[in-house]
Amino acid sequence: MANVSGSVYGLTILSPIIDDPNADISHDGAIRQYLANLPNGHTSPFAKVSSTHICRLVVMDDVIYVGTPANEEHLNSKYLVFESNFDGELEPYLARMANEIPEVVESVWGHCVGYPGLRDVSAFVAYMKKCQITTTFYFADVNDHTVQSTLRALKVQASVADFIGKHQGESPAEIQAAFRAFYERVSNMSEQEPGHHDPQGHQSIKLNRSIAAQHG
Amino acid sequence: MKRIVSEEVALTNINGKTYAMTAITPMKPWKTPILKIFFFFLALIKPLQARLVGLSFIHFARWVVIKRHAFPRLADSQPEENLSYDYLLFFSNFNGTWNQYIDAFADVLADGLNLVWRWSEKFPMSRPVTAFKRYISLVQFDTDYYYTAYPRATTNDVKAAHRVCAAVEDLGRNCNGMSPAEFSAAYLHFLMKVQKDLGSTGVGPVGT
Prior knowledge:
- The structure holds 2 protein chains of 2 kinds.
- By secondary structure, chain A is α+β, with helices and mostly antiparallel strands.
- Chain A has 2 domains: 4-130, Alpha-Beta Plaits; 147-215.
- Chain A contains 7 helices and 5 strands; from the N terminus they run E-E-H-E-E-H-H-H-E-H-H-H.
- Chain B is α+β, with helices and mostly antiparallel strands.
- Chain B has 2 domains: 14-139, Alpha-Beta Plaits (2-Layer Sandwich); 155-197.
- The interface between A and B is large, with 102 and 100 residues.
């Protein structure tokens, strides 16, 4: 299936935007305005749809003319492009969007042709599927780990770097005891918040030569 | 005056260490099936993807062909599209700067890129890279909102983190029954295994 790589789904949606010449603010302009003020990082609404690895929203005003001798042509509608890479199946994901971030869905897709609203989630799912374009070729570099397992792995990675630095030069028995406790902690470690910019960055450590001396 | 940008506010096309590229190119409809056949074999024969995988700075990428009559039409009030070309959409989520990406793409995957885009109008081929960059600049458009769950991690960081996790799991499960001497040897082996995967994560370099 072209939309899927491993356990990751590649969703491409093109929703035609309402063209109303009598509107005070054009619908594409209103979408852009809204998106420009939408928070990002761990406060992004898409962090609530926690199976989302990466997604983007783009207002496509027109196709692009590449110059002569190509024909110059134009779209009759503007389109909202939604590209998302997420874990699992399509329909539950779309239903999660409707349930977890209804304000975003209303504020964005409310400017699109045929949007049915969110009273009936299945109607919204059906609408989004009508706007879906099948991916022709999809590539996911890491396609066998969920968002949560990746966030947890990044947290563990930072902790391991800290652990090694902290216990350099200790005796094998001391390190073994510390590692047991560390493993216990790591086993119960929750993942970090999705979208977070700050807390899990870590510095690489310089290994002490005495490690090799002690253990070698 | 130096402009200070909050990291919680994503810049256009960039969030943390990840860059969103969106590009669209026109194709004569008779060429579309040829491209689809190429993608079919690319998906089917995994070794053909080896160089794409080897680049190791693309989280996710996709090519989407939209036939000229297949733009979604959701109501009779929406005017029908009247296009002479099919369109190839390209989405990439990569680490590094735009210039690094295009340079690396053109350097490592020149033949592959040519096979994908040679069916698009006026594609200049991927080498020399200057003409290729001009073409990509022309057909690219900006992202209005870009979210990533792990903005400070590159795809290499993600892969490294999973390797570290597996190594911790491995040593953690087995260390209880070991003598200190056995643990010492196992711990040294663990260090050697994970040391290349403990590089810094955090803020990405600034560039274009």
